[in-house]
Structures are given as structure tokens and as C-alpha cells.
TrEMBL record:
Gene3D superfamilies (alphabetical): Met-10+ protein-like domains, Vaccinia Virus protein VP39
Protein name: TRM5/TYW2-like methyltransferase domain-containing protein
A single BP term in Gene Ontology: wybutosine biosynthetic process
Natural source organism: Odontella aurita
Cell inner membrane keyword on record: no
UniProt key word S-adenosyl-L-methionine: yes
Lineage summary: Eukaryota, Sar, Stramenopiles, Ochrophyta, Bacillariophyta
Single GO cellular component term: cytoplasm
Keyword vocabulary terms for this entry: S-adenosyl-L-methionine, Transferase
């Protein structure tokens, strides 16, 4: 609510002097008005949050029946039709199951996906469920490349609402499906807050908060060394990210936004035990999904 509380001295707005108060004697009415607006805004935020929580925990559907196929220009092989659902991380498409068929037919599926999205350079498929404390596919064939160059290590740069992170698809856990939730959390972080991002993985949660909010500090804790290295590379990119100037994180200065982010490697229970009480105003402790224990 934007409204003056007093008149300028002499009726001139640029006089710099305070004139008579407009609401003297009506403090109770003014407080009631402000509180009503405040409650109304929080009601809208609660409705938005409920809508986000009600969203299905699935990737965005990809329409396999594109214009070329509707016009009869698609592949003649039904096995070469790409699946309706898959994730896109950076320039890599990730299918959550290995397509049926021969190796040539699987490669045709990958090529079909890459034809529909020219930004995709590699098409991959997961061959087993995530397991272990890292919740990562691993280097032992957990992810196979269907089409595109044989990139090793399988590392890509993923952009989410203007903030970038580095993802090692074989050695770290990351899902682009949590993008809306990360954005919702950023909207709740207030100016001057000290935030702890536990189990932060490649650091996208911490990077978003550092670059998008006016928090005082963000501490990212992760014990997977590969994910920590990805987070540190993401922080270096944040220092040069011009998108931060439009997001107003760190006062609009990318370097200040990156300076707010501290990245620690280790067990969060051991690291937290050595910290002072009330070190943080907000703690994020996401539970990784898509594993054998879910």
C-alpha cells in the first residue's frame, strides 16, 4: 500500500520538510486498514502455495504427435516414437526408462527427440533406480546415451528462471521438476534472513536464494564431493550472471550475490553441531525422491 502519511511543508513535495500529519487521531483505523491488506495478501499467497503443492509430481508432457507426424511426415516405425514424458537438464534429455527395441531403434528414439528440440544435444536413458546416499545413477551404466556425442563426464549447465547450475548427471542428484518449488521458497525468504540449505546437491536451491532474494547469507552443505564441485562452479557462474541485476539479489550485483553463498562439504549433522545456536532464520532440508527407498 503506497500512500503519504503527511503533507510536505509549504505544499511543495521537494521541500524536504515534514508538514502536518494526515492521519493524526485515526491510528486505529489506519492500523486496521493495513492489517486487512496484509491478511488479504497472505490469503493470496496461501492459495498460490496450495496450487503449487497440488501440481502433479511429473515432468512436463512432451507431445509425441508433432506437426510433422500429423501431416504424415513422422517415422514409419512405432518403436521410434519418443515417449511422452522425459526430463530436460541443460542440453541433455533424460528418459526415466530404457526404450524397448534394438539398439538401432533406441537410437532412433533419441534422434526423434533431438529433432523436436534443437537445444537438446544428447539423449540419454536411465537404466536403474537411484540408490545409495548420493541418489545418483553412478558411473557403472546407470545412464546410457541413446544418441548424440559420447560426453564423459556427462556434465551440463542447466538454467532455471535465469539462474544457472552445473549438473553431473551420472554422479549427482538433480531434478528440474522442483523448479516451481524452488521459486516458491525464494518468494518466502525475507530481507536479511540467514538460510541453511542442507543436502543441497548441486546447489540450485542455494544459488536461487542467493541470486533472487535479499537474504543476508546462504550456507550450502553437501557431502557428495561431485555435487559440491558442481555447486562451486555454479557460484562462479553466478558472479557473472547478468540476470541477477534484474532479480535484485545482493542489491542487483552478481558478485555480491555470489559472496552471500558459502559452500561447505561434509555431513550436515557434524557441521551443524559445530555452529552456534540460532545461526539461521530458515533451514531447507529437502528429501531426494525417485529412489529405491521411496
Amino acid at each position: 500500500m503506497d500512500m503519504p502519511l503527511c503533507l510536505p511543508e509549504g505544499g511543495k513535495e521537494d521541500s524536504g520538510q515534514r508538514g502536518p500529519d494526515l492521519f493524526r487521531g485515526r491510528e486505529d483505523w489506519l492500523a486496521q486498514l493495513v492489517n486487512e491488506r496484509h491478511r488479504r495478501n497472505w490469503t493470496k499467497i496461501d492459495r498460490f502455495a496450495e496450487g503449487v503443492r497440488a501440481m502433479p509430481d511429473e515432468p512436463v508432457d512432451v507431445d509425441e504427435n508433432g506437426e510433422d507426424e500429423r501431416r504424415g511426415g513422422g517415422s514409419n516405425s512405432a518403436s521410434a516414437a519418443p515417449p511422452r514424458r522425459f526430463d530436460v537438464v541443460g542440453d541433455v534429455a533424460l528418459l526415466h526408462a530404457l526404450p524397448e527395441g534394438t539398439e538401432e531403434e533406441r537410437e532412433a528414439v533419441g534422434r526423434a527427440i533431438m529433432r523436436k528440440n534443437r537445444a537438446i544435444k544428447i539423449c540419454t536413458a536411465r537404466t536403474k533406480s537411484l540408490s545409495g546416499p548420493e541418489r545418483a545413477p553412478g558411473d557403472d551404466g546407470g545412464i546410457v546415451i541413446l544418441s548424440g556425442p559420447d560426453r564423459n563426464p556427462l556434465v551440463t549447465t542447466h538454467s532455471e528462471y535465469g539462474i544457472k547450475c552445473v549438473v553431473d548427471l551420472r554422479r549427482t542428484f538433480f531434478t528440474p521438476r522442483m523448479g516451481p518449488e524452488r521459486l516458491r521458497i525464494c518468494s518466502q525468504v525475507a530481507r536479511g534472513e540467514r538460510v541453511l540449505a542442507a543436502f543441497s546437491g548441486v546447489g540450485m536451491d542455494a544459488l536461487q536464494i542467493a541470486g533472487r532474494t535479499e537474504c543476508d547469507s546462504v550456507t550450502s552443505v553437501e557431502w557428495n564431493g561431485a555435487a559440491v564441485e558442481c555447486a562451486r562452479r555454479g557460484r562462479r557462474m553466478l558472479e557473472r550472471n547478468r540476470a541477477v541485476t534484474s532479480i535484485a539479489g545482493g542489491g542487483g550485483d552478481p558478485k555480491k550475490a555470489a559472496q552471500k553463498l558459502e559452500i561447505l562439504e561434509g555431513d550436515v549433522t557434524e557441521i551443524a553441531a559445530g555452529m552456534e545456536r540460532e545461526s539461521f532464520d530458515r533451514i531447507l532440508a529437502p528429501r531426494p525422491k525417485e529412489g529405491e527407498m521411496d
